[in-house]
Design a protein that fits this description.
The complex is a heterotetramer, with 2 copies of chain A (381 residues) and 2 copies of chain B (338 residues).
Chain A (H helix, E strand, L loop, with lengths): L46 H26 L13 H9 L6 E3 L5 H6 L9 H4 L8 H4 L11 H15 L5 E6 L6 H13 L3 E7 L2 E2 L2 E2 L20 E5 L3 H16 L5 E6 L18 H8 L3 H11 L5 H22 L20 H25 L1
Parallel strand pairs in A: 1-2, 2-3, 3-7, 6-7
Antiparallel strand pairs in A: 4-5
Chain B lengths: L10 E4 H15 L3 E5 L15 H5 L4 E3 L4 H13 L3 E5 L10 H8 L2 H4 L9 E6 L14 H5 L5 E3 L4 H13 L4 E6 L6 E4 L14 E4 L4 E5 L3 H13 L5 E5 L2 E3 L3 H11 L2 E8 L4 H13 L8 E5 L10 H4 L3 H9 L8
Parallel strand pairs in B: 2-3, 2-4, 4-5, 5-7, 6-7, 10-11, 10-13, 13-14
Antiparallel strand pairs in B: 1-8, 6-12, 9-11
Helix pairs in contact in B: 1-7, 3-4, 8-12, 9-10
Classes of the chains: A alpha/beta (381), B alpha/beta (338).
Bound molecules: thiamine diphosphate (2 copies) and magnesium ion (2 copies).
């Protein structure tokens, strides 16, 4: 019996404004993270894609270990490693076309490299010679974002501009589980859904925000459940399953490209290393928890699948390993050279045109540097 | 109150109308100019500055956003990254605060952090200041925050003609501009020809609104008319005050200001913003650095008190008025006292 | 077949971290707004409660019209009327016990009055003689919040402190549909759920944020659907049905009091007047839309129900009307007196102790005022 | 570098340790003191200032919050409304920006808007400044924003003893205090007895760290040790420099500062923050207002350049160092030039 039929004389109508805007059911994530490797779905996966993913994962892992080593040698100011999260990083890069845009967070150097950026240029920020080591427009990669979640509205605005232009460009923005608590996450997802912007939000839920575990970050059934509150679909994926990640992100990207609007993807993964080289993870988690994830390593999962299907022989493994080593060796060599820096650059990019004040200050620094080098010269004589 | 000479077709226009016209002309001239904010569409903004823009250019060019200032400015950053020129409206000064992280950490820094490859030509329009009887959080003078942030331009008009010219220049700038609109001058009027509007003023030039020889009043935005009034009243006391309208706080026109103070030897900085930590400290300090041996007295400041903005019924006691300015002028050590 | 059984040799486990934290199903709102009046549920409603609600609605409506009239006479700086939303305002106040706290938004003067505050003191902010006209601690009512959604984290913090104290106090925080787009809404709800704070969030979805209609504010199935993303229940209610509002809010309050954590309640209602007296609603909506809501007026709905049940005779109606008139007359009289203000108050409450700088400035103003009154005195002589 | 006299039980302690001890002692003394922030629990904060607090007082007293700065400060407001004394940790200067609306529109105003009935005894700890090789957004000097906001106290220690004393006093204050911790002094050491810590300093008193007669260096926080070093170096040039450590920017100790400058007749303000719109303008202006006829030269400023904070490898060029301070002292018109 509907409310209209319940009463005799007095039958009020529902509030005039009441009408369903969106059916919530299809927006809700499945209860379990989506997986491909080790399931029947894996049979459908393209062998070429799996090989490509494998090579990138191995290269990515090697990149992570090399960069961490560089922090020990004082060659990087800091490095937030994505070891254990390579499937997310690589899939994010590979799901995009060249014309698309990537909005990485500060941990996502690897996604930037997997997208094709010179591995050394991706490290400029963390090395400390400048804030961003590449031209974002040339590579369609936004600067690595340190203030958490602030890059998400940028991705939405860019995707909105692309939609207005009608050029089929999609933006993919990355954020951590901790970052979802920021107001910018909320505002970005809301704008994206209202504007039906072609943007994909990838949350890497790696269990921690520095020392804070997920349970102190949210009480939600999953982070993907946030999507329905904006009117966009939420997908839950095993973030260590490269094939699942690639499939789900590619679907979300083409949905956005087709005009279907934004998607929120939560990748369940784990940060195997400390937060950065400067962090001491023993203060807040047990080795046993880390160990439990070792058997769910993204490279291992893919290797097992490929082995089972005969897609990976020892030759291929060796070749992939050697390529990764070559990349690491080259990176090491280049990062061991001191960058040539011009202090006067401090004043070159603040404004399109230097203000009088900056010209005066630049002159001051120039004079100081000249005096110092004269002094040094005199001392040398 | 305006420098535009009357032409045959001029008629009285308000500052709000001139600002609206500047938006319209910028949008008509350059399809990459987009306006976004709360209520900027059908309503035309709470001050009606964007009136008619959606009707003329469509919702995609002048867009009512969800109610979230960080989101508005943050999406504007993304739009600018894609080559658009967003003009963002913040509804009131205090409602720009939620967007501070986007402004300070991204808008102000993006050109620099990308070595100039990613400039952000964004104009952030902020109605500011008091004197309109607004309840709390509707009358803040927030210019000190913007001035303290390298990478931003900070511009504020005081006349109808400047409102047009400076807003056009701000939108045309390849750098982010915080464009501060003095709320209580929105309805100020001047003769002005919308069909042949005043030429676009370059950003960064102060202007002498009233020449004088006894002392210089250095001011901007809502306090410019007050200073002009004070200068008129000062004639009765035998003082011939010069009034400098800064127009742009960043970049700062040291040349014009210092030249005036060197001529007069005395100066008072006048603004509505709280005195402590407000723009006046910076202005007084740099004038003193440049004109020390020309000064007959320390540069004084007449500013809002160091209190949260008062409720409507008490705001008249807070705002720098003619009497308080004249009191300060009187303290400029007219007889040798040292 | 579970994923564990799908494959032969290689059977990966799901990601170790994966475990459901919360069952999403009970957190999702019903598809239709909950209603009592005109349905079978109304039979269970307590007649005393309905009478109380009726009297408060009538009084509330009268308060709204009187306050709007005062703006026309220049006695109020501005008034944002809640005409049409009285059921929400009244139910919010009545759902709370005396020890509980109310966190109103700038539109919720009526809830403040219904909670028992002197009708004139509730208008201090809008009259313009000071920012807040009452001692929040005395009445357990936070200041009316102008910056939208900023009061929500305050309510959460207060409720959290109460929970730590274990004193059973609950906070109820009010916000508009537009306010849900702000980052503070998101952060507040997330903190509340993580902390299981005893707080109830009431969103009055009145269709507009000034001129911006709900469809430009969100693409969600409903605002109540946001709750699941935080792990709290979301309830959807007919906001013009005072009995339904009272029931749902009371349930949420006692759930919070029992330690059950926060609830998000969306009340579907409509703003019958312009945004404030200064607004021109014809610029953005048609009279027809407003008219469609007239038949769904909260007083009308309750009156019909009570009439059907014989709970409201002409005597009672008259008496309620007269009480409301008396309140309005008293308010009018008192608001027509000029408040006595001391400008020196400007310096009295900035800090616990006046700084040297403020003492100097206070002295300056005092001297100015004395000079001015001397001048006035001389002129008078 | 510390004023505490060596006692038998003293041993070297870092500023971070003294701050941690101040939190601990405040919490032990007053059960209404609660610490909250990102990673303040098991980790002990990224600078380890809150180390051990959760272990000693439990998670309800020292709480790891979700990652949302406006939420942290906003909930702290509610906790303070209920009678608690929250001490909030912002992880880095630039990450306090998302909380600006809460800080400016509520924390700073609540006492005033409620006619004193609802004070907010909140301490907001903000690690600030550069010199630690941090990547972008980790080295901002944001004190100008706080100074420009009436209703806040702004306090910053420069010594181990003051770190303890001023933080205790800030937590005990019934008003909100923005407590700025100079990042690069976290590891600075001094002999200090944690069992009998230095007495609690009152907020609002500057201190002469080094007496001198030639000129006054006015400074605070991270620049205090630099100024002391400069003063040592200046002896070689024949200058005997006085160094005033402000300790509190709000309230400002006009008396101590003006007394020093009246004695020396010359002054330089030194800070890391950008010069333009930075604290130095206010300080120079008010010193000039008060000491004009005692000044032999304009008050000069040595500050960070007007640029976004540089990347680690270039920050040394930005930070005011000994040479730049001595250059400024040299420009104080030692021969009569007027
Ligand atoms: C706005 C902001 N607040 C605080 C920080 C300091 N911070 C850097 S990383 C981090 C944790 C991030 O956690 P999460 O989002 O889960 O990403 P993950 O580190 O796990 O990749 C914090 C708190 C920051 N960078 N930005
Ligand atoms: C942070 C902030 N931004 C903007 C405003 C200006 N403003 C006042 S009311 C309003 C609309 C509010 O809409 P809603 O939340 O739906 O509440 P309603 O007015 O419908 O009660 C706006 C934009 C504000 N007060 N605070
Ligand atoms: Mg994480
Ligand atoms: Mg509304």
């Amino acid at each position: 019996m509907t409310v209209m039929e319940q009463r005799g004389a007095y039958r009020p109508t529902p509030p005039p404004a009441w009408q369903h805007r969106t059916d919530p059911a299809p927006l809700l994530p499945d209860p379990e993270p989506y997986r491909v490797l080790g399931t029947e779905a894996a049979a459908k996966a393209d062998p070429g894609l799996l090989r490509r993913l494998y090579a990138e994962l191995v290269r990515g892992r090697r990149y992570n270990t090399q960069a961490t080593a560089l922090t020990k040698q004082g060659r990087l100011a800091v490095y937030p490693s994505s070891t254990g999260q390579e499937a997310c990083e690589v899939a994010a890069a590979l799901a995009l076309e060249e014309r698309d845009w990537l909005f990485p967070s500060y941990r996502d150097t690897l996604a930037v490299v997997a997208r094709g950026l010179d591995p050394a240029h991706a490290l400029t920020l963390l090395r400390g010679d400048w804030h961003t080591g590449y031209d974002p427009r040339e590579h369609r990669i936004a600067p690595l974002s340190t203030p958490l979640a602030t890059q998400l509205p940028h991705a939405v605005g860019l995707a909105h501009a692309a939609r207005l232009k009608g050029d089929g460009v999609v933006a993919l923005a990355m954020v951590g589980d901790g970052g979802t608590s920021e107001g910018d996450f909320h505002e970005a997802l809301n704008f994206a859904a209202v504007w039906q912007a072609p943007v994909v939000f990838l949350v890497q839920n790696n269990g921690f925000a520095i020392s804070v575990p997920l349970a102190k970050q949210t009480a939600a059934p999953s982070l993907a459940h946030k999507a329905v509150g904006y009117g966009m679909p939420g997908r839950l994926v095993d973030g260590n399953d490269a094939a699942a990640m690639h499939e789900v992100l590619s679907e979300a990207v083409s949905r956005a490209r087709r005009g279907g609007g934004p998607t929120l993807v939560e990748a369940v993964t784990y940060r195997m290393e400390a937060h950065t080289n400067a962090d001491d993870a023993t203060r807040y988690r047990h080795d046993a928890e880390v160990d439990a994830w070792r058997d769910h390593d993204p490279i291992l999962l893919l290797e097992r699948e490929m082995a089972e299907r005969g897609l990976l022989d020892d030759d291929e493994k060796r070749r992939v390993g050697e390529d990764a080593e070559a990349m690491a060796a080259d990176l090491r060599t280049r990062m061991n050279q001191d960058p040539v820096l011009d202090p006067m650059d401090l004043f070159s990019h603040v404004y399109a045109e230097q203000t009088t004040q900056l010209r005066e200050q630049a002159a001051q620094l120039r004079a100081e540097l000249e005096a110092a080098s004269e002094e040094a010269g005199e001392e040398a004589r | 109150m305006t420098t535009v000479a009357a032409k045959p077709a001029t008629k009285p226009a308000t500052m709000a109308q001139a600002l609206g016209r500047a938006l319209r002309d910028s949008m008509a001239e350059d399809p990459s100019v987009h306006v976004l904010g709360e209520d900027v569409g059908a309503l035309g903004g709470v001050f009606r500055v964007t009136d008619g823009l959606t009707a003329e250019f469509g919702e995609d060019r002048c867009t009512d956003t969800p109610l979230a200032e960080a989101g508005i400015l943050g999406t504007a950053v993304g739009m600018a990254m894609y080559g658009l020129r967003p003009v963002v409206e913040m509804q009131f000064d205090a409602f720009a605060y939620p967007a501070f992280e986007q402004l300070l950490s991204h808008v102000a820094k993006m050109r620099n952090r990308t070595r100039g490859t990613m400039p952000l030509p964004i104009t952030v329009r902020v109605p500011y200041g008091g004197g309109i009887g607004g309840v709390e959080h509707h009358s803040d003078s927030s210019e000190a925050y913007y001035m303290a942030t390298p990478g931003l331009h900070v511009v504020t008009p005081a006349t109808v003609a400047d409102a047009y010219g400076l807003l056009r220049a701000s939108i045309a700038s390849d750098d982010p501009v915080v464009f501060l609109e003095p709320k209580r001058l929105y309805w100020s009027k001047a003769d002005w020809n919308p069909e042949a509007p005043s030429p676009v003023e370059p950003i960064g030039r102060a202007v002498v609104r009233r020449p004088g020889r006894s002392a210089t009043l250095i001011t901007y935005g809502p306090s410019v008319p007050v200073c002009l009034e004070a200068a008129e009243a000062a004639r009765a006391e035998g003082w011939d005050l010069e009034v400098v309208d800064l127009r742009s706080l960043v970049p700062f026109d040291d040349e014009t200001v210092a030249a005036s103070v060197r001529r007069t030897g005395r100066a008072v900085v006048v603004h509505e913003s709280n005195g402590f930590g407000g723009p006046g400290g910076e202005i007084a300090a740099r004038v003193t650095e440049r004109c020390f041996h020309h000064l007959e007295a320390p540069v004084l400041r007449v500013a809002g008190f160091d209190i949260p903005y008062p409720p409507p019924m008490l705001e008249k006691h807070h705002l720098p008025g003619v009497d308080r300015i004249l009191d300060a002028v009187a303290r400029l050590q007219w007889e040798a006292e040292s």
